[in-house]
Amino acid sequence: MPDAVRQNSNNFLSNDRSLLLRYESEDDQSYIVSRTDGARLTIPKNRGVPKPFVDKPPQPLTPAFRLLVADFLGLAPAGLGTIVLAPLAVLWSLAVLLTRPLNQNDRKRVVAVCAIAAVLLALAIPLSELFLARLSS
Amino acid sequence: MIARALYLVAAWFTVSMVVTLVVGTRLRRTHFALSLLWLGAVLAVGDVWALLTFGRPPEVITLTGAAAILGLGCILWLRDWNAFGQVAWLTTIIVTPIFLVYAYSVIIAARLAPASFLAAQMFLYVQSVAALVALTQMHENLDVNCRVRWRKRIDRIQPAPGFTPMISLHLPTYDEPPEVVEGTLRALAALDYPAFEVLVIDNNTPEEKTWRPIEALCRELGSRFRFFHLEKWPGYKSGALNFALAQTSPSAELIGVVDADYRVDPKFLREMVPAFTDPQVAFIQAPQDYRDYTPGSYSEAIYYSYEYFFEVPMPVRNEHNAIIFAGTMGLIRKSILQEIGGWSEWCITEDAEASLRVLKLGYKALYYHRSLGRGLMPCTFAGLKRQRFRWCFGNIQILRKHWESLMPWAHWIDPQNRLTQAQRYFYLAGLVQWFTDAFNVAFLCFLVAGGMIKLYSSSFTILPTTFPWITLSFIFILLNIWRLVWVIRNALKLSLGLALRSLYGMFSVGWVVALAVFRGAIQSKTAFLRTPKTMGNVRMVNALFATQWEAGIGLLCLGIGAAVLALADRSPNTYFIGGLLLWQSTLYLAAPAYSLFYKACNL
Questions:
Q1: B158 lies in a domain?
Q2: Rounded to the nearest 5°, which phi and psi values hold at B570?
């Protein structure tokens, strides 16, 4: 096998049909594999895809959105969960707004969190009020 | 007043639905005057009945006026539906909120103890969310059966002589029986298309004797076929497909994914490729079809439950450029797949996930309504359950990851999200419909609790059921089942018996779907469960063991239901709870029955 081909990062484009790969080891950047003819190859982990899809790092408002989901579920026990969690979601998003530099999209997310929490709270208040009235009677 | 309003709108709903279910598919034209006439007739029938029963003309006139205005809106909005579908949808969207408001008003008015009040609230919460999901299913069903004009349906693609872009077909395999892959590769070798390559990526197959014959066959089939064996390769199927993407011929413009068990039609590429003459088209999907089922058997019923997706949701979603890329039997533009960064390795339904990211960029997707290849159904019911678990779990992963971009305000928050409102609706509806079986499990818990309360004559009440509540719930459940049979019969052109067996085929995997929903809600990742293509151990005891939970739940429902009917007081509530428990038992006991008799392939 010519050296030029061995050093080519895209060895798999070779037409040799007998090339079969076997995993040997890996590091942060690449896999080391061996071929049936004994050659060892270094294959970049990004495997040549120009822009690999990577998980976004957690967004600053992710906890607020999780609280919002919990708010929605909190409507089930007579709105009691929402009564507790909706203000927390609002406070969290406002705290993020005041303490961290946010881009335009995240600022809009803060508005969305506050608006949805307010709607859920408006639904939860009468439900929990009715429940508490029964509890006290 | 709410009870009278509910009776009136329920009368409209019942009349319009019954007529739609009986003759709704026969009217193959749409006309504004005809729609108005049918709307007027339905409203008039309900009004006359309500006036004769309750009197109260002002209430009837007010409600009828509101319904007429809303009905006019429906007729103008749903111009491609026939009159039956338009009016059925109108009455559905009226009766649902009024029924929920009535149910809430009953529990508020009743003097319930705090614990009962809490239980009733929880029941109605589940019912409200389930009703929203049921509305999306109703819309989809009416759309497919009452639509008279398909604006984007593609049964044939205009050939484009001379347009033959290079295509790279990717065939990921993992521990597949060589004889199955051989059939797939030989079918690919017979493709009637001048420029294509086939990359077989065998990842993590433990036994060398399994993949060596495939490697040898690739060598035999010529230079178009390239074989890669990867060991300890991460990312499951998407990892293999990303590897293939990197090894794809630089001249390839399109990527096709073919599962290891698919026998493609020689015209597969020739027929679908001309769709890409439109540079905005990112991907095209043909139906996934299956072979090796025996007519008249349980496998035939399961076959049609698979067909359902490609005959009901996909054509409907295609009208709104909101289909999913379902992997096998699909072609996707390589440049766009690279633009989105390849297949997501965190998701076990990477194909559907990729299609959402593609549509977010504003590209077009097409559904080609013609079967061009057939694969194998899972050989056993246990395999079917594994496959359904993977599909459901993967969709919950997508929902968790992308829910924000499917919200009505998503474009306001992220202007780069180019999904239209319709695309967001159909993706969200498609994802939340997986929750239906989880809601059913929740209802079952309430029913079992209700049955036990009946048996022990406890003072604890879950829901203060009234006569209207029981009557209308019964009517709604009945119409709902009838509607499901109606849509299966008409969309898939089946006999009543086969439609019922297919419906029960869907019900039989309800428990595993519910489990996948619960697991997906608390767990972000899981292993990719490969669908086995061999029979494995098919002894009767194994078939029953694979469905032990469903059998246990079914028998529990059967026992409690029978006990309630035999021992509890003779009230409508008793018959309602007992009857529902018996019906629920049939849904769960369908699983062991199908597991015993289902056999798809002969490997």
A1: no
A2: -90, 65
Residue B505 pLDDT level (bands cut at 50, 70, 90): very high
| Token pair for A128 | 């929990």
> Any CB–CB contact under 8 A between B212 and chain A?
no
**Chain A interface mutation, best of B111, B243, B255, B357, highest count of A Cβ atoms under 10 Å:** B243
| Res. B559: pLDDT tops 90 | yes
Residues B502 and B579 in one domain: yes
Residue B59 DSSP SS3: helix
Question: Which residue ranges make up each domain of chain A?
Answer: 3-44, 62-136
Q: How many domains does chain B have?
A: 3
CB B451 within 8 A of CB B581: yes
| ipTM value > 0.95 | no
Are residue B212 and residue B282 in the same domain, yes or no? Answer: yes
Task: Clarify whether residues B419 and B356 are in a common domain.
Answer: no
CB contact under 8 Å between B117 and A78, yes or no, is yes
Residue B76 is predicted with a pLDDT of 96
Question: Does residue B151 form part of some domain?
Answer: no
Structure tokens that stand for A108 in this block: 């809009």
Tell whether B424 and B442 lie within a shared domain.
yes
Chain B residues touching A48 at Cβ < 8 A = 245-247
- B323/B424 same-domain check: no
Per-residue pLDDT of B587-596, as tens digits, reads: 999 999 988 8
CB B600 within 8 A of CB B378: yes
Q: Residue B162 pLDDT > 50, yes or no?
A: yes
Q: Who contacts B501 (Cβ-Cβ below 8 Å, separation ≥6)?
A: B298, B300, B301
Chain A neighbors of B245, CB-CB under 8 A: 47-49
Kindly give the interhelix angle for A80-99 and A104-136, rounded to the nearest 10 degrees: 150
B173 and B114 inside one domain: no
Q: Does B206 touch chain A (CB under 8 A)?
A: no
Q: B458: pLDDT confidence band, cut at 50, 70 and 90?
A: low
Give me the domain span that covers residue B385. Answer: 378-603
Q: Does residue B224 sit at the A interface (CB-CB below 8 Å)?
A: no
Global pTM reads: 0.88
